[in-house]
């Protein structure tokens, strides 16, 4: 049997990705990790144009709504044309559309990678992705996304969020900026990594009760 015959016989799983070089690199990295555990599966990448990638003459705040960098990938998943998608977590909405889940967060080198999956493949793909998921990175991201979700921070506000992990303690820091960069407000908190979502919610409350922050939150 030739290599071509062997490859033809392999089961195929379709993966959605944005077209940028960075997105493709991330997707290929995830596939490479999965193939270490599943050499019998062939992963094929389907490239998607997103609204945020195609509209280059407007500021993000003018695009409106959420998911400007993810909707086309979400549509592919919900239509069943792909089993999962790889995406930078920083550009994903804090609330996914009904039927989709955040399947795995890979080990954090810098805060960027995530995988979202179609419900039809949920049990199988989640089991597969669990083999490359990283618990500590996931908990840091839970804290960050909890903050952004609680504060309803999308592309309409300028906020940077970062976590550091020291043993079992998370330090969560966020900076809120005016659009011209002239005003910045930073808040920080720390606590157990096992209370990651609660840390995000608590830090959101600090911003929401800060009278200087409220005008920047819209």
From TrEMBL:
GO terms for molecular function: hydroxymethylbilane synthase activity. One of its GO terms (biological process) is heme biosynthetic process. It is an enzyme of class 2 (transferase). Pathway: Porphyrin-containing compound metabolism; protoporphyrin-IX biosynthesis; coproporphyrinogen-III from 5-aminolevulinate: step 2/4. InterPro entries: HemC (IPR000860), Porphobilin_deaminase_N (IPR022417), Porphobilinogen_deaminase_C (IPR022418), Porphobilinogen_deaminase_C_sf (IPR036803). Its EC number is 2.5.1.61. GO terms for cellular component: cytoplasm. Residues 13-126 form the Porphobilinogen deaminase N-terminal domain. The keyword Nucleotide-binding does not apply. It catalyses: 4 porphobilinogen + H2O = hydroxymethylbilane + 4 NH4(+). The keyword Transferase applies. Pfam families: Porphobil_deam (PF01379), Porphobil_deamC (PF03900). Residues 139-208 form the Porphobilinogen deaminase C-terminal domain. Keywords: Porphyrin biosynthesis, Transferase. Belongs to the HMBS family. Tetrapolymerization of the monopyrrole PBG into the hydroxymethylbilane pre-uroporphyrinogen in several discrete steps. This is hydroxymethylbilane synthase. The lineage of its organism: Eukaryota, Sar, Stramenopiles, Oomycota, Saprolegniomycetes.
């Amino acid at each position: 049997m030739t290599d071509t015959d062997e490859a033809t016989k392999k089961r195929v799983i379709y993966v959605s990705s944005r077209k940028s070089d960075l997105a493709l690199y991330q997707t290929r990295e995830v596939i490479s990790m999965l193939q270490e555990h599943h050499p019998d599966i062939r992963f094929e990448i389907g490239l998607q144009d997103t609204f945020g990638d195609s509209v280059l003459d407007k500021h993000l705040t003018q695009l409106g709504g959420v998911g400007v960098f993810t909707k086309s990938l979400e549509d592919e998943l919900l239509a069943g044309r792909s089993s999962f998608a790889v995406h930078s977590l920083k550009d994903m909405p804090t609330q996914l559309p009904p039927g989709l889940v955040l399947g795995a967060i890979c080990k954090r080198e810098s805060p960027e990678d995530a995988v979202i999956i179609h419900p039809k493949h949920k049990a199988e793909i989640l089991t597969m992705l669990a083999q490359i998921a990283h618990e500590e990175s996931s908990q840091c991201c839970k804290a960050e996304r909890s903050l952004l979700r609680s504060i309803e921070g999308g592309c309409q506000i300028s906020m940077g969020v970062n976590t550091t992990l020291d043993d079992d303690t998370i330090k969560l820091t966020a900076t809120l900026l005016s659009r011209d960069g002239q005003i910045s407000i930073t808040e920080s908190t720390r606590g157990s990594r096992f209370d990651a979502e609660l840390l995000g919610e608590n830090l959101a409350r600090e911003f929401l009760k800060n009278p200087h922050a409220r005008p920047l939150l819209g």
